[in-house]
Amino acid sequence: MGSNIAWPKLRRSLVAILRGITPDESVAVVGALIEEGYELIEVPLNSPDAFTSIRRCVDAFGDKATIGAGTVLSAEQVDRLADAGGRLVVSPNIEPDVIARASEHGMLTMPGVFTPTEALLAVKCGASALKFFPGGVLGTTGVAAIKTILPKETVVGVVGGVAEGSFAEYRKIGVETFGLGTNIYKPGDSAETVREKGRRIAAAYDAAFGTA
Description:
There is one protein chain. The protein has a 9-stranded parallel β-sheet with strand order 5-4-3-2-1-9-8-7-6. By secondary structure, it is an alpha/beta fold. It has 8 helices and 9 strands. Helix 1 (23-35) runs parallel beside helix 2, helix 1 packs parallel to helix 8 and helix 3 runs parallel beside helix 4. The chain has helices spanning 23-35, 50-61, 75-83, 96-104, 116-124, 135-147, 167-172, 191-209, and strands at residues 13-17, 40-44, 66-70, 88-90, 108-110, 112-113, 130-132, 156-159, 177-180. Helix 1 (23-35) links the parallel strand 1 (13-17) and strand 2. The model has no long low-confidence stretch (mean pLDDT 95).
């Protein structure tokens, strides 16, 4: 059994996924999102020079948000992320070594799962939260069915094919954590464009969950 680093209690449990962002864009874009109330920022490692972007954003905003990496596939990448100051590890899969190493560093972990077997394994490994991906394929019906066999305290997040219009439906099944990718950032988007998208998504979340 892994050692669980608890998922934080946040006003909005939204992970902004900035796939494809470059170091020169990162601080402005992340700054805009933080000003709009986002507290969880993910820079996928298949973005250009991702560790540099993470380091710059941690230096600028590490006291205001939890910043980390996505597409983390190895314990070595977890160590590099720790060196860059990152505190969030998001993966597309379950790699027990990744979760264990991240827990040693005191990082939040959010591995990708799709089946009951994977979800229970991630819980056993000590994941902070589960990332049901691609969530749009499972839908609320699929996620709700798998939730019934998980420990009640399990934090369930949905990523992939989820937009602000579906927040209310997911609330009905007890899901309040979401990862937002192209809905919130596409490569080349300006900081102002991202701010506008982020503001719209945050307003939809507040409407669905009553957090305004």
